[in-house]
Specification:
This protein is 22% helix and 36% strand. By secondary structure, it is an alpha+beta fold. Strand 13 and strand 14 form a beta hairpin. It is elongated, with a radius of gyration of 29 Å.
Length: 244
């Protein structure tokens, strides 16, 4: 064998090893990322309600309207309130409810910033005590609730604080972290519900995309236990599957 052939053989061997190394790295990476079967953005919701029923005198808001803390929402004329005041009962105001003794009315105020997503109180309508007047959906503190179907090995590699990529409906992506996970077993598969937190998800620029109930995809990074962990896990899963 000539030296030229030896060099060609050595070069082919090096290239083959390099290709195998790259394929192992890619395979390991794919084995250690999992995509959700479903995922939804959940925003905090605050109900506007009171212990006093009454007639809605004025409505200051409508569905889709943004509100800030302290903004007036509704003014309600309450006969029950007037009767209690006449008996000398002291009714204290609160952050979300201002009592107006001189008129016997209640002024409801927003206690959280957000958007009016439900308005039941229409001017002239009567609402009973504790009946929700409206729902405010917050623009901050959103989370993502995602479901995954995992093998036992994959479930063992998911951990709190793991990196998550959230793909939004407009094809943009934001980063998050695993906050918690609940699991149930169905036909030997782990059905895992993961709650994901993300500071980027609560950016004001995403308010129109990252709305309550919007569908997203969550891709979680599993714990990497080494370069050969992915192929080893796949081989163990195959052996378990065929019953060896």
């Amino acid at each position: 064998m000539t030296w030229a052939n030896r060099f060609r053989l050595l070069g082919g061997l090096v290239i083959s090893l390099a290709v195998i190394f790259v394929l192992v790295v890619v395979f390991n990476q794919r084995q250690h990322t999992i995509a959700s079967t479903s995922a939804t953005i959940i925003a905090p919701r605050a109900a506007v309600a009171s212990n006093y029923g009454g007639t809605v005198v004025t409505s200051y808001v409508r569905v889709g309207q943004p509100v800030q803390v302290g903004d007036p929402l509704f003014r309600v004329n309450s006969i029950a309130l007037q009767q209690d005041l006449a008996r000398g009962v002291t009714i204290a105001s609160s952050e979300g409810l201002r009592v107006e003794p001189e008129t016997g009315t209640l002024l409801y105020l927003a206690t959280t910033p957000g958007t009016m997503t439900e308005v039941n109180a229409q001017e002239g309508s009567y609402l009973t005590a504790s009946e929700p007047l409206a729902i405010i959906t917050g623009d901050t503190d959103r989370i993502v609730q995602a479901q995954f179907v995992l093998t036992p090995i994959q479930y063992g590699l998911i951990e709190r604080g793991a990196a998550v990529t959230l793909r939004l409906p407009n094809d943009s992506s934001v980063n998050g972290r695993v906050a918690s996970a609940l699991v149930t077993t169905v036909n030997t598969a782990a059905v895992v519900t993961v709650r994901v937190t993300s500071d980027e998800l609560n950016s004001g620029d995403l308010n129109l995309v990252a709305t309550d109930g919007a569908p997203v995809q969550a891709v979680v990074q599993l714990r990497d236990e080494g370069l050969l962990a992915g192929p080893s896990d796949a081989l163990r899963a195959l052996i378990h599957k065929i019953g060896l």
